[in-house]
Amino acid sequence: MPLIETSDGPMWRRRATKKQLLIWLGWLVGIAIATYAWQLISEKTIWFFVEDAPRQAADIGTRMIPPKWSYMNELWRPVWDTLNIATLGTVIALIIAIPVAFAAAKNTTPHPLVRAVALFIIVSSRSVNSLVWGLILVLIVGPGVLAGTIAIGLRSIGFCAKLLYEGIEEIDHTQVEAIEATGASRAQQMLYGIVPQVLPTFAGVGVFRWDINIRESTILGLVGAGGIGLELNGSINTLAWTQVSMILLVILVTVIISEWVSARVRGAII
Amino acid sequence: MSDTSAANPGSSGVGITYPAKWKKPPLITNPTLRWGLILGFAIYLALALGTMDVNWGRVWEGLPRGQRFIAAFFPPDFSDSRNVVWDGILESMWMAIIATVAGIALSVPVGLGAASNLAPKWVYLACRSIVAGSRTFPEVILAIFAVKLFGFGPFAGFIALSIGTIGFFAKLLAEDIENMSASQAEAIKATGASWFQWVNYAIQPQVMPRMIGLSVYRLDINFRESAVVGIVGGGGIGATLNTAFDRYEFDTAAAILLIIIGIVMVLEYASGYLRKWVQ
């Protein structure tokens, strides 16, 4: 216990002197970096616009109310597209992620080199945002739902494969050994020893990612990759604020429903 | 392990017939539910694929472009002739740092208020709705509005990322406080500590290690997100990347993507290391 000697005897202190100084030094460095960063950002800011922001916010706010309810008739199709982008994207991702996960898990990988390649696939898929994937794919396959679906798929591979391979690494080995002791081949060990143990994880990860993908697919339209984001972009560009608020409302409801479904399904599986 | 057809319950004692072959038990035991789900999903898949209009002619035309894009990675153009890549990367970094700092500074009071064992009911509800509000919309949509309000540039991105950080950090902080050990808090309270002393000596030491790890993790997320808020005008590397794509400069775009992947890998490794070290 760090104590400090005073004229009235030892007193309790929270930290030893050296540690306290180190912590202060850490704060000093942190604050210096933050100040420097703030200065650079503030140099690039036009402060007139920032001062004007509250008035602008109030202005846009009043223009957004009430939402244009009749616009909903035109939104059913984009909502359906958004749902398809998320679901089909998740299906693509799972199909690719399963072999990648088996290649990346320490206990099932055929070779360390294969494992390195699989880990690289996982990292690069995770580091590139779905909007960036969308940007690339709109150039390649053209604007529309297909680009969005592939973008969501590519983006989700890393996430799914990472959680799956961690699940595979955490399985109970005694069961696999028991199967091995019956004289099963490697494929049979995989099918009867490993797969039944990780199947609930697979289903859980799929539903979890689907929920995230619903959110992500709502914005993919901003780069032209289909879905409700396309309508959002169009409405913002034409300053149709009542349509914008309607779309935001629809996104909100979709996200809440998908979160509820995902929570229920995962609750049922796990 | 379970056998698929249970022994006939009517004939007890002699004459129980066990199935001669073992079958793997399915994941969903209720057959109606299982086949219903499979059928439902098949119908959905058919509908979804049927209504998806794809312009295959355009896809075919685009394939050479895809090849060019992939070819641009071998080798990528790091030369940065217009001197924009490093500017963009640095802007993103500073934006991510300041947004993390501001976001965390704002989420500490919100997080304290959103912990049900700390705050009175009305504060709890107010703070929870702030958290829910900032979590609902993705950073990109927040960024669109920030750009509308504050003009183009990193300030709009900073605002969007800060708001996103509040939703993330305040929620986890509140959950951590709710899960802390109550006996330590009681012990401090029994010494006659004031509210601030109580928070400082009873709660903060319990939640601090996890919060440091989470803030590095959030810095990592903010850097990744800063690459996309630029696409809608929020400054940073995203703006540079968008320009590179618009100008069909695939080799520069490839270089930017590789730099982003590299930085994210370093940040992820660093945050993992730091979290281990703190705990």
Structure description:
- The complex is a heterodimer of chains A (270) and B (279).
- Chain A has a single domain, classed as MetI-like (MetI-like fold).
- Chain A starts with a strand and ends with a helix.
- In chain A, helix 3 runs parallel beside helix 6 (145-169) and helix 3 runs antiparallel to helix 8.
- Chain A has a two-stranded antiparallel sheet.
- Helices cover 79% and strands 3% of the residues of chain A.
- By secondary structure, chain A is an all-alpha fold.
- By secondary structure, chain B is mainly alpha-helical.
- Chain B has a domain at 85-278: MetI-like fold (Orthogonal Bundle), CATH 1.10.3720.
- Chain B is 72% helix and 0% strand.
- Chain B is built from ten helices and no strands.
- In chain B, helix 3 (85-113) crosses helix 9 and helix 9 runs antiparallel to helix 10.
- Chain B is extended, with a radius of gyration of 27 Å.
- In chain B, 38% of the residues are buried.
- At the A-B interface, helix 1, helix 2, helix 3, helix 4 and helix 5 of A face helix 1, helix 2, helix 3, helix 5 and helix 6 of B.
Short description:
The complex is a heterodimer of chains A (270) and B (279). Chain A has 270 residues and is mainly alpha-helical.
Fold topology:
The complex is a heterodimer of chains A (270) and B (279).
Chain A: E1 3-6, E2 9-12, H1 17-43, H2 47-64, H3 72-104, H4 112-127, H5 130-141, H6 145-169, H7 173-181, H8 186-219, H9 228-237, H10 241-269
Antiparallel strand pairs in A: 1-2
Chain B: H1 31-51, H2 56-71, H3 85-113, H4 121-136, H5 139-150, H6 154-178, H7 182-190, H8 195-229, H9 237-246, H10 250-278
Helix pairs in contact in B: 3-6, 3-8, 3-9, 4-6, 5-6, 6-8, 7-8, 8-9, 8-10, 9-10
